[in-house]
């Protein structure tokens, strides 16, 4: 696969398949416009040790007309009582500019300390909220203004995942896959699926169908992208230097961390497009990206989105909009099944070996 490294893999895939995905293109343009607005709005509001970090659809480049803005003020410094005032000032500016507020889970719209993200990986102090913030900082994040703290914290997190993975560093095996990182990504995915049912019960079914659609698509996309990054450590020719240095006690893990930083700099859909171009068939590519385009088109339709927002679970068997969600979700899952299990023997061996046990 030879191409300009600056060219979007999604655009290359469109050309190779002779397809057009208007909803994906529109969402990327909407995201670009809103990112520009947000950067202008927040100019001067953060510093080298306190950065605004955005998650969700803006980070994935998938914003539709009713997308909210999930954000946090990431602190990489000693505690300062003034940080609360900074966070409140930023929140006031964001919501005064009519960016939609995040959900009421207390994960976003507040401060996040780097200490817990870096040091509490696993154990009783690693709460669901902490796991979510950490994984999304890698797989689904964007910085609109300053990024010094953001880059440091991501690098420290990756250092923990790689340095503490004794199997990766001292194994005599042939597979170079960061298993500590992969297991945490898998734990995040299972946490999301379990929390979906908890929210369903706590909210008496409110927004059930809309959350269900996102679980089938954007949440699953994040997990798939994380798996692919881990597997590309073994498969990607660009990771060869990292693999060689990992086997050299004098060189160690630095190049692998740099490689992971580069991979996680891409949004999830771009990671998926790259891996489909490398390892998948045209059938897998069409299933994945036709369905994802249909998903974004559905979210950008105010009438259909309103139906999903208000639909009672008891109506889901007969509602035509939710039936469309099912069809889209099944097609996306079929595409992932082809990619991971059928199209490429090397990728299949990795998912077979690491996917469950």
**Sheet with the most strands, sense and barrel status:** 3 strands, mixed
User: What string gives the helices and strands in order?
Assistant: HHEHEHEHHHHHHHHHHHHH
Q: In which range does the helix fraction lie?
A: 55-70%
Q: Into how many domains do the coordinates divide?
A: 2
Q: Ranges with pLDDT <50 over ≥5 residues?
A: none
- Please state the overall shape, judged from the principal axes of the Cα atoms: globular
Let me know the average pLDDT.
93
Number of helices: 17
The whole-angstrom Rg is 20 Å
Strand content: under 5%
How would you classify the helix and strand content by structural class? mainly alpha
Strand tally is 3
Quote the distance from N terminus to C terminus.
32 Å
| Strand order in the sheet with the most strands | 1-2-3
Textual characterization of the structure:
The protein is mostly helical and 357 residues long. The chain has 2 domains: 17-153; 165-357, no CATH class. The protein is 65% helix and 4% strand. It contains 17 helices and 3 strands. The protein has helices spanning 9-17, 22-42, 56-60, 82-96, 114-119, 128-139, 148-163, 166-170, 179-202, 208-235, 240-246, 254-264, 268-279, 282-299, 302-310, 320-342, 345-354; strands at 50-54, 71-75, 110-113. A 3-stranded mixed beta sheet has the order 1-2-3, sandwiched between helices. Helix 4 (82-96) links the parallel strand 2 and strand 3 (110-113). Helix 14 (282-299) packs antiparallel against helix 16 (320-342) and helix 16 packs across helix 17 (345-354). The radius of gyration is 20 Å and the shape is globular. It starts with 8 loop residues before the first helix and ends with a helix.
